[in-house]
Design goal:
Layout (H helix, E strand, L loop, with lengths): L8 H7 L3 H4 L4 E2 L1 H8 L3 H10 L6 E3 L2 E5 H9 L9 H13 L1
Antiparallel strand pairs: 1-3, 2-3
Helix pairs in contact: 3-4
Length: 98
Amino acid sequence: MRPAPVRPATAHANSLQPAATTQPQRYLNNDEAASYLRLSPRTLEKQRVIGGGPRFRKFGRRVMYAVADLDSWADQRSFEVTSDPEYAEHQSAESRAR
């Protein structure tokens, strides 16, 4: 019979840390979401009113953003060059909405 393998000390130390420190928060408030996206909190507030911002949730009076929604919204705004037809459509749609 073989003995059980010995785990390195670093693997045991990592298992003692709480799971919350290794995973990002599921929901962020307005200021945290703005910081995550490197935007002004006021920008997100305006986008909730006029549209075009990331999806958000309301829990009572509290506005919260899911990290996955923030990532998805940011990914939708990824362009190769400014002459990209999708970029031009996106910019003209935003200017018409204002």
